[in-house]
Automatic annotation (TrEMBL):
Superkingdom classification of source: Bacteria
Keyword Hydrolase found: yes
InterPro entries (alphabetical): AB_hydrolase_1, AB_hydrolase_fold, Epox_hydrolase-like
Name assigned to this protein: Alpha/beta hydrolase fold protein
Pfam short name (any one): Abhydrolase_1
Keyword Hydrolase on entry: yes
UniProt GO MF annotations: hydrolase activity
Keyword terms: Hydrolase
Record domain AB hydrolase-1: where: 32-287
Length: 301
């Protein structure tokens, strides 16, 4: 990776039961620890425009999630448990422990945000603060898809049984994934993505094992992730830490931040605060200045 994407950051390879995970860290050693979790179909490189600024006050860790970037991409299991957000949250904790952090803040985007809120629900003593970028709760998302099958068609497609989506995507990975990126940006182009970061995304999604991992990520969303949400909702479990919800005004927040906040307040984050960001789905890359300001206010509040 070009050094200037994360100036001054260290690289880490961490061995866990499902394989070797890659992370970068930077910032003052005594600073409050902060874990950044990327989404689909990206890698930790998505944080390159805001991580160095956050590292002025925090010890920032940018992790490649299992199946993405340079982290391990093991084959999925029949129950899709290997790519459940519960398992991936446990792996995030293990990475942070290896780096010396038992209690930390989490900022997650997209799939990384789903890992973040599952981790905070499962292990509330771990998470000091939680920022969720451009998502609705998984169970809410599935209910909306079922009510309107034309909504977010990639959720249904990627969750289909193997190997149908893997085979279809494998014929032209760049065409499929770049098509999603364009569809989800505010201007319908790839202009928001720095060339070195986009090159890393392409390297990752061109690997058949990582295409399979992305599908398993979504199959887990339809199976164990939704089941975990339903169980917690029935048990009235909510987030114990302060929660911030940021939504791109051109994507998840297109119907207004109030609608997004309502979904969270009625499920897992009754005290969540939130803001709309003038952006498509990729807040940290499309509008890093506004995203950074919102995160800094929350993290230092």
């Amino acid at each position: 990776m070009p050094a200037d994407l994360f100036p001054g950051f260290e690289s880490h390879w961490i061995d866990l039961p499902d394989g070797r995970f890659f992370a970068r860290s930077g910032g003052p050693a005594e600073g409050p620890p902060l874990l950044l979790l990327h989404g689909f179909p990206q890698t930790h490189a998505c944080w390159h425009r805001i991580a160095p600024a956050l590292a002025r006050t925090h010890r920032v860790v940018c992790l490649d999630l299992k199946g993405y970037g340079w982290s391990a991409a093991p084959k999925g299991d029949a129950a899709h448990a290997a790519y459940s957000k519960r398992r991936m949250g446990e792996e995030a904790v293990a990475v942070m422990e290896r780096l010396g952090h038992a209690h930390f803040a989490v900022v997650g985007h997209d799939r990384g945000a789903r890992i973040g809120y599952r981790l905070a629900l499962d292990q509330p003593g771990r998470v000091a603060r939680l920022a969720l970028l451009d998502i609705l709760p998984t169970l809410v998302q599935w209910r909306r898809i079922e009510a309107d099958p034309g909504t977010y068609p990639h959720w249904r497609f990627l969750a289909e049984p193997a190997p149908a989506p893997e085979t279809a995507i494998g014929r032209d990975p760049d065409g499929y994934f770049e098509g999603l990126l364009r569809a989800w940006t505010g201007d319908g182009t790839l202009d928001a993505f720095a060339r070195p970061a986009l090159d890393l995304y392409r390297q990752s999604w061109s690997v058949p094992a990582r295409i399979h991992a992305a599908c398993e990520d979504y199959r887990a969303g339809a199976g164990p992730d939704r089941a975990a949400d339903e169980a917690d909702l029935a048990a009235c479990r909510t987030l114990a830490c302060p929660a911030l919800v940021l939504a791109g005004s051109g994507f998840v927040g297109r119907n207004g931040i109030d609608a997004v906040l309502q979904a969270w307040r009625e499920t897992f984050a009754p005290k969540a605060e939130g803001a709309a960001i003038a952006s498509g789905h990729f807040l940290a890359e499309e509008n890093p200045a506004e995203t950074l300001r919102a995160l800094e206010r929350f993290l230092t509040g």
